[in-house]
Each structure stands twice: as structure tokens, then as C-alpha cells.
Write a structure and sequence with these properties.
Layout: E1 2-5, E2 16-19, E3 29-38, H1 41-47, E4 64-71, E5 83-86, E6 102-106, E7 110-112, H2 119-124, H3 126-139, E8 147-150, H4 156-167, E9 171-176, H5 179-188, E10 192-195, H6 201-209, E11 214-219, H7 224-232, E12 238-241, H8 254-260, E13 263-266, H9 274-289, E14 297-302, H10 306-315, E15 320-324
Parallel strand pairs: 8-9, 8-11, 9-10, 11-12, 12-13, 14-15
Antiparallel strand pairs: 1-2, 3-4, 3-6, 3-15, 4-5, 5-7
The structure holds NADP nicotinamide-adenine-dinucleotide phosphate (NAP).
Length: 328
């Protein structure tokens, strides 16, 4: 089979498309013939050797994927020919990932492709939606009517968070540096949008928030933005630290935490157990069932174009970057 692999960590150019063996199945694993995968910034960190618990090279990254079951354990939940997507686990972290024609995935981390969804949508959605759900609901405790600010709102996690927060009845303020993307975010349902790089970001957010305090911030940027988030959130607010696209360290004013009684919490989608991920996925799909919307895809690349796809991801796409592994 063909797979994108790196033999040494370093530049993303270390990823090469090559022939390798079809993975041997371990107990409880399903062999998936992949149709689509999608990229996450973590895939780049992994190739660069900056990701904890990464697999030993030669290694195939890729955490998200959808495809068709080729072999499944007898008596299990899946049969040959079932259409499935991957909800999480160690695939593309320490176990070989989805930028390949075949992937061995523990049965407990698979789910049927949602009714009416394409392989592309099913490969695009799981990781970012489960992350956004964890940030908004599981850790963030979002309730109906609260005001939520989402940084990096045009990204994979951001677009998922905008959809899910709206589905939960929140008032959503979405941040993006790009005017065109802000317009699209509004068309997608964000109540307000603000330029991430506005010199007085806190004041701009307050202006659009009106009288309602910001109760919850979902931060995908880190670096200098964490301090800004602490200034934006209201008294007794919650700030969920999801990502660090801007910078890996932040300097914050501790007095803000104390005087405003703010809760700052880091979270990882990897903290879901398989059962919890399946439950959260069901709740996410229930949000989609009440709407005609679908996960946002920025662009679909062919299997041979993975390098271009990583470049597109780095430029800051609107929504997910999908790889079509096999025509369908
Ligand atoms: N904690 C977890 O379990 C978990 C899970 C998934 C992802 N993450 C992390 O969450 C972060 C976001 O992931 P993603 O998939 O949403 O990424 P993404 O699709 O690449 O999008 C992030 C968005 O952030 C904005 N952005 C990027 N760099 C920026 C900068 N320097 N300053 C200001 N804005 C910037 C861009 O939007 P504009 O151009 O519109 O401003 C971009 O579209 C990453 O750090 C990722 O590793 C964490």
C-alpha cells in the first residue's frame, strides 16, 4: 500500500509517499480502507518532533480518517463494507496514521459515517468537533444564552466551536484576522465577529457583546492572546486553553485571575475515553441532525498533494483541509 511516512523528524518535507506493508491487525482492531483523511496542526508538530508520545519512525501521521471496513473482529460492531470514521485514540499519534491507503484502528474508536455525510465530511469532523465539544460543554460548562468568544474561529476547531456553540444556544463572538473570513463566519451563524489583531481587542469585543458579560472564551491561539482573553472574559468567567498557534508560552497578569475569579483550564481531546468520545460524538451529531449544516471544508487535496495541503493548512484556511486518499 502507499503511505506518507517520515524516517526522521524535522521539516514537513521529510514526509515522503512510499510503498509499505499493509498493517497487521492486533486483537480488537479493524482494517480500514481509507477514502479520506484530514490534517490537523498536530500532524505538523509530530513530523517536526514536537509532539509528546509520537510513534517511532518510519511513521505515518494523520489522526482523522474515513473509509470502508476491510476486516473486522468477528462478533464485533462492524462488518466488511461498513462505512466508518475514526473518533480518536492513538491513530496518528503513536500508532500508524491515516495518510495511508490502509489503517488498523481499534474497534472502540470507530463510528459509522453519519447518515447523509460524505467521506470528506466524516474525515473532516471528528477531532476538531470533539475538541470543541470538550472545550464548550465538558470542561467549559456552556449553558443556553451565555456569550462565548472563540479565537482562531475560522480554523478547524474554531468553525466546529462556532457551529456547536450556536447549536447550544450561545451568543457567539468569533475572532479572525481576515475580513473575508469574518464575513463567512457571520454567514455561518456567528452573531458578531471581531478582528483578532484589533489594537484594542478587549474594547472591540465589549462593544459587540453589549451588556452581556463574556462567560466563556475558547482560545486556540495562546501566546499574547491568553492575556487578552483574561481581559475579555467577565467576572467568574472560564477560559479554555485549546491551542497555541500564536506562541507556546504566555505571560499573564495573575491579578486578573484573582480579582475576576477566572477559571483557566487547559484541555486535550485525548483525555476522552472511547466511551466518552462515542457519547460526545452522539451529542455532536444530534446538533447536526437539527440543522441542514455540515462540517466546513476549506479544500480537498489528492493523495499525492499532501505537501501542498500542509502549506494550505499553515496559511490559515477556513475550515478543514481534507486529503482524498482514494476516489469514490
Ligand atoms: N487541545 C486539543 O486537544 C486540541 C485539538 C485540536 C487542535 N488543537 C490545537 O488548537 C489550535 C487550532 O487548531 P485548528 O485545527 O483549529 O487550526 P487551524 O485550522 O490551522 O486554524 C486556526 C486559525 O487560527 C488563526 N491563526 C493562526 N495563527 C495565528 C496567529 N499567529 N495569530 C492569530 N491568529 C492565528 C487563523 O485564523 P485567521 O487567519 O482567520 O485569523 C487560523 O485559521 C492548534 O494549536 C491545534 O494544535 C488542540
Amino acid at each position: 500500500m502507499r503511505a506518507w511516512r517520515f524516517h526522521e523528524t524535522g521539516d514537513i518535507a521529510n514526509l515522503v509517499l512510499e510503498e509499505t506493508d499493509v498493517p497487521a491487525l492486533e486483537r480488537g482492531e479493524v482494517l480500514v480502507r481509507l477514502k479520506c483523511a484530514s490534517l490537523n496542526p498536530a500532524d505538523r508538530y509530530l513530523v517536526q518532533g514536537q509532539y509528546p508520545r509520537a510513534g517511532t519512525p518510519p511513521f505515518t501521521p494523520g489522526r482523522d480518517g474515513s473509509g470502508i471496513v476491510l476486516h473486522a473482529p468477528s462478533g464485533g460492531r462492524f462488518r466488511e463494507g461498513d462505512k466508518v470514521c475514526i473518533l480518536g485514540g492513538l491513530t496518528g499519534v503513536s500508532a500508524q496514521g491515516t495518510l495511508a491507503e490502509r489503517c488498523a484502528v481499534p474497534e472502540e474508536w470507530l463510528s459509522p459515517i453519519p447518515e447523509g455525510w460524505t467521506f470528506e465530511q466524516a474525515a473532516a469532523a471528528p477531532l476538531v468537533h470533539l475538541t470543541a465539544w470538550r472545550a464548550l460543554k465538558v470542561c467549559g460548562g456552556l449553558t443556553h444564552g451565555e456569550t462565548v468568544v472563540i479565537t482562531g474561529a475560522s480554523g478547524g476547531v474554531g468553525t466546529a466551536a462556532v457551529f456547536l456553540a450556536k447549536a447550544c444556544g450561545a451568543h457567539v463572538i468569533a475572532l479572525s484576522r481576515d475580513t473575508a473570513k469574518r464575513k463567512t463566519l457571520e454567514a455561518m451563524g456567528a452573531d458578531e465577529t471581531v478582528d483578532t489583531n484589533a489594537p484594542a481587542l478587549e474594547r472591540e469585543v465589549r462593544k459587540v457583546a453589549g451588556d452581556a458579560p463574556v462567560s466563556l472564551v475558547i482560545d486556540t491561539l495562546g501566546g499574547p492572546f491568553l492575556e487578552k482573553c483574561l481581559r475579555i472574559v467577565g467576572s467568574h468567567g472560564r477560559v479554555m486553553v485549546v491551542g497555541l498557534l500564536a506562541e507556546v508560552t504566555s505571560e499573564i497578569t495573575l491579578g486578573l485571575l484573582i480579582h475576576k475569579n477566572i477559571r483557566v483550564q487547559g484541555l486535550s481531546v485525548s483525555a476522552f475515553t472511547p466511551d466518552q468520545a462515542q457519547q460526545a460524538w452522539a451529542e455532536i451529531l444530534a446538533c447536526y441532525e437539527k440543522s441542514s449544516k455540515r462540517p466546513i471544508i476549506s479544500r480537498i487535496f489528492d493523495m499525492e498533494e499532501v505537501q501542498d495541503a500542509f502549506r494550505h493548512l499553515k496559511e490559515g484556511p477556513l475550515g478543514k483541509v481534507v486529503i482524498r486518499i482514494e476516489d469514490h
